[in-house]
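Bumping with the actual sequence this time:
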Amino acid sequence: MSRAKPAMRMKTNREAIDRLLAPDEPSVTLQLLEQAALALGRKLKVELA
């Protein structure tokens, strides 16, 4: 799957997808993670222990 298709489903750009998938990128936000989860038909759950 190209990165353009998930970007379109997440209503964001390809650069945001690149950041999301980069293992050393610290600027991934909870909002971006939530958009990714929703685009996959899932919910984002954050738990602090």
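The tokens above came from a reply further down the thread. The helical segments are 4-10, 14-21, 30-39.
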